[in-house]
Sequence to fold (226 residues):
Amino acid sequence: AQKITQTQPGMFVQEKEAVTLDCTYDTSDQSYGLFWYKQPSSGEMIFLIYQGSYDEQNATEGRYSLNFQKARKSANLVISASQLGDSAMYFCAMMANAGKSTFGDGTTLTVKP
Amino acid sequence: IAGITQAPTSQILAAGRRMTLRCTQDMRHNAMYWYRQDLGLGLRLIHYSNTAGTTGKGEVPDGYSVSRANTDDFPLTLASAVPSQTSVYFCASSAAGRSDTQYFGPGTRLTVL
Fold:
């Protein structure tokens, strides 16, 4: 069975600083995708970044980067230069196929001015 | 382009009643999904469909059924609602497979009394 673990229920960061949100995963599949989503207080789910299990380079999307360490089964999200609008819930997710889509319980990030 | 629409936005339902949550996408995505999100937790997969005409069970399928008569629509039915089905329900779609981003609808907030 697949499992996603996000060990930080809540995180605080000062505006303009970088923050790392942790994600570890467990799967027996060799091929899978790892995703991060942002859920602001308004409730919608916003895709941030994707990493494939065979990708050798860490994914980057603007201020978001994914620190992928396959041997450790970790896929941490790094947000650089935090903004007040980054305050939200962040979910790590994994998909091996359409029937195997698993989300973590999320980390609430609060950016302080 | 609307993306994914869900209806209703919210609903209060008496226990034992039948309810269908509607989901429509206009992106011609092959795969569609239904998730539930309980308060303060991550998303759990209820049912999915890889392509029109096929469906599969996710992590928490009991008490729910789905159909996929065409590419665009993926309704979720609660045959006889129970209070434990109180949740926010998200529909999502993706082009196909593990490397494709899931795009989410705005969610339906369902309360079963």
